[in-house]
Amino acid sequence: MKDKIEQIRLLLSEIESATGDDDSQQFTKNYSALELPSIVSSVVDFLHPFMTPYEIAIYWYLFNRSIVKTGEQYARVSTRGMSAIAKSASGQSDDLSYGVIKKTIDALKEKEILSVAGDTNREGTLYKIAIPDEISMCKELMSKRVENEVAAIDTKKELDFYNVPENRKTVFERDGYKCHYCGKQLTRFSATLDHIQPVSKGGDNSFENLITACLHCNAERGNKSVMDFIANDS
Ligand SMILES: [Zn+2]
User: Fold this and answer.
1) What is the CA(192)–ligand 1 centre distance, in A?
2) I need a labelling partner for 226 at 20 to 30 A (CA). Which of 28, 85, 157, 215 fits?
3) Domain 156-233 class?
4) Any alpha helices (H) in the chain, and if so which ranges?
């Protein structure tokens, strides 16, 4: 008896491995609840720019039926079953027409956002719903965004002569490590930077807005303008 059960198990596992094709292997990919916020955000940021409102409506419907509900990127839906997922924009009827849904799904397939992942049966067609990470036009947009951000950070760094150590040095060198106010010779340990136009009054960290000062003069001056400070001091 025990042998028989063992044989049946073996047979079942053989059948299972024989019928498991590539598509069903992919079903193992699961999305955890933790990943969802970042996927939702990337859809809005990097996929919406490529979609029409109808495409967006159908995408989120499928997204909900797949990734949200099952953690997998697959959903079986029928064109007819989607007629009420959004209000028709034509104004002729409330429901989306068969033609609109069909056209929208074709457009989504064209854009690599949807793909047919299995046969069609009475419950509809099995679709794979792609996420931005897998769609080439989204990936392009993402890398462009990253490039811009890196460039912005670099530009900011280039312009910041107050916080970036190598930039601070260039200001001290320009001023010969001498206090702009009292003329005291300073070293790289005693030199401080003072904003000509105070940050509190809209001054920035540019090369032109910074001068070398000794700690004493820097503290004395505080938020006074350079002209006021020099006038009051002498
Ligand atoms: Zn000084």
Assistant:
1) 10
2) 157
3) mainly alpha
4) 2-19, 22-26, 36-42, 53-63, 69-70, 98-110, 136-159, 165-174, 215-221, 226-233
